[in-house]
Amino acid sequence: MENKMLPTKARVIEIIDETNNIKTFRLELIDDEAKKKFFFFPGKFVMVSIFGYGEIPLGISSSHHEKRFFEVSVAKVGNTSSAMHNLKIGDIVGIRGPFGRAFPYMRMKGKDILIVAGGTGIAPLRCLVNALLDERESFGKIWLIYGTKNKNSFCYTREINKWKESGKINIVLTTDEKCEDELICHGLVTDYLDKTDLDYKKTTVALCGPEKMIENCAKKLISLGVNQDDIFVSLERLMFCGFGKCMHCNISTKYACIEGPVFTLNEVLEMKAEA
Amino acid sequence: MFLLKKQNLRNFIDALSQNEAKLKVIVPIQKDDGTIYYDEYEKNKDKEIIIEGRTDFSPKKYFLPEIEEIANFEKSENEVIIKEVLNNEKRIIFGIRPCDLNALLFLDEVLIKYMYPDKNYEARRKNTILIAIDCLEACNKSCFCSYLGTNIAKGYDICLTKIKEGFLVREGSNIGKNLLEKDGIRKILEKTDKEPKQISFECKNKINVEKIEELLEKNFESKVWQEEAERCLNCTSCTQVCPSCYCFYVKDELGFDDKKSRRLKCLDSCFLDRFSRISRDFVFRKSNKAKLRQFVCHNFYYSLVRNKMIKCVGCGRCIDVCPVKINIVEIIKKIRGYDGK
Ligand SMILES: Cc1cc2nc3c(=O)[nH]c(=O)nc-3n(C[C@H](O)[C@H](O)[C@H](O)COP(=O)(O)OP(=O)(O)OC[C@H]3O[C@@H](n4cnc5c(N)ncnc54)[C@H](O)[C@@H]3O)c2cc1C
Ligand code: SF4
Ligand code: SF4
Ligand code: FES
């Protein structure tokens, strides 16, 4: 059997500055075999190697309908992510995966969908939004509530404008800090969860963001009547392997790299609080 | 079944180390400071080979070294060459005890059989011949292997049992069988129809592992965790000596210029903050309580649910090595006592 710890090569074919701290990298796998086998649904992640600097888990942020390339969006927070920010077009990175369990994309068909993102948590959800919009007619109402610290920390701003113009999705943008822009709401994403026209009892929710945000959103969503099995949460854990060896992503009897990173809220509640 | 006369033990090991395949023979010996550990026979010919009692360190380092290069990278103008690194040294480990053998069987389950194999561990495992030695009685006051069934040697290529005249030698695999038939080795052995006695000792340190996964699940919030963990120093001695602890992290090491680099797999410990730290410096298992609970639950609960095996093999090393006397058996006893309260 092949060595799953060994990366395959991908070339950087485009780099987009999203904010002063986040860049999106468009990557193309070099090996044709690897490209053929590269298959994913929104919510899955890859391990990206910046050779000599390290390897980090990143959610795939482009739609799974795009077969020529895929994208990851990276916040500069430490060693490896900073080295990644120094990459140029044409450079080579290593890729392992995709790993993990995705959002239940197929099961979302026909349903109303609420997507809630906080900070960099938007990355895997952008993948979901684009996938949903690719097949817009297969889904019910779609809402996106996306919150960041301030106006300058929004990713994908051009794309979000396009999404808005398409009229295919309702979007609420929020910032923790007050801002002048009248299209942006002041406050936390939790403050806007009940401000949609969704039938909460029949809505599927996808959540990704800081642990505290997830916790508060979960409470609010349950009180709004959303079924716990219809709330899907993408969790972040330290990860070094992606296939159940290193134990760093272990939560109780589960592994975030195998049963996650996307869990149902029920599963999250079942997993013991660890602190 | 063969008989190896007491006075021939060294000849047997010499014969092993002189075989044509150029295998390195690893034996348990005592360091000057008294520690019993495994090292190359060739470098320690003057030392006594310790065949009785628990070794202070298991031979884990030959399967999961503290740091192991798993790949290296060479960058040039427009290309990166990725090289896989696997350890292909052939070894014989002589004298491995039943507890440590059972730990390898657990590691095989997790690291080879479960999902995709860890190729680095697998390579080392495949390249190692195991010559075990039976334990006939509890070898120290802390071990509790007899309650876990890990006092019985399994998965060996050859196994020795001590008797009055020397050792009974039996094969456990084809590799073992072939090795015993090698000229230099076969002539040291005598055929015998003696059989080793059934092993049936009981350890002093009693543990009850009945439905242990349910017990720990139910008592996840037990006050015992805090009571016991309070004094932990996070020294990681326990996870280092544990023959079945395998958690690792991966890091890259850059060469002098940034053209060449190496990827290293390093053993980690759940008693450290860094084990569960993610962005914004958020540490999931910050408290000692959470850390100790992770260690105990991985050993007796998570491993059972995921791999259908108890990770702990009851060697008792973590108990003896802990500077503040945190005791995995006592913790479980206490939890049983407090069960449901
Ligand atoms: C499934 C998954 C998907 C992710 N998707 C994205 C994404 O799409 N975009 C994005 O910007 N980030 C994502 N992350 C987080 C990203 O992996 C970390 O920010 C990155 O590993 C930091 O590495 P570093 O070397 O730059 O930082 P370091 O120098 O190692 O440390 C900087 C900070 O990041 C934390 N950190 C280090 N390694 C990890 C890790 N493996 N996971 C989480 N935190 C870590 C450290 O504890 C520290 O607080 C994801 C994480 C997971 C588990
Ligand atoms: S947990 Fe302790 S007793 Fe059990 S195998 Fe590890 S070191 Fe030995
Ligand atoms: S050996 Fe004892 S003090 Fe050290 S980390 Fe383990 S439990 Fe804590
Ligand atoms: S990332 Fe290593 S076990 Fe999940």
Walk me through what this model shows.
The complex is a heterodimer of chains A (275) and B (341). Chain A has a seven-stranded mixed β-sheet, sandwiched between helices. In chain A, 20% of the residues lie in helices and 31% in strands. Chain A has helices at 32-37, 79-85, 122-134, 157-166, 211-223, 265-270; strands at 8-17, 22-29, 45-50, 54-59, 70-75, 92-99, 112-118, 142-148, 170-175, 184-186, 203-208, 231-234, 250-251, 254-255, 262-264. With 275 residues, chain A is of the alpha/beta class. With 341 residues, chain B is α+β, with helices and mostly antiparallel strands. Chain B has two domains: 2-191, no CATH class; 212-338, no CATH class. Helices cover 29% and strands 23% of the residues of chain B. Chain B has eleven helices and 14 strands. Chain B has helices spanning 9-17, 98-113, 119-126, 174-181, 183-186, 212-218, 223-229, 237-241, 288-307, 317-321, 328-338; strands spanning 2-5, 24-30, 36-40, 67-76, 79-84, 91-96, 128-133, 158-163, 166-171, 190-191, 248-254, 260-267, 277-278, 282-283. In chain B, the strands form three sheets. Chain B has an eight-stranded mixed β-sheet. In chain B, strands 5-4-12-11 form a four-stranded antiparallel β-sheet, with no helix packed on it. In chain B, strand 8 (158-163) and strand 9 (166-171) form a beta hairpin. Chain B starts with a strand and ends with a helix. The mean pLDDT of chain B is 93. At the A-B interface, strand 13 of A face strand 4, strand 5, strand 11, strand 12 and strand 13 of B. The structure holds flavin-adenine dinucleotide, iron/sulfur cluster (2 copies) and FE2/S2 (inorganic) cluster. FE2/S2 (inorganic) cluster binds next to loops of chain A.
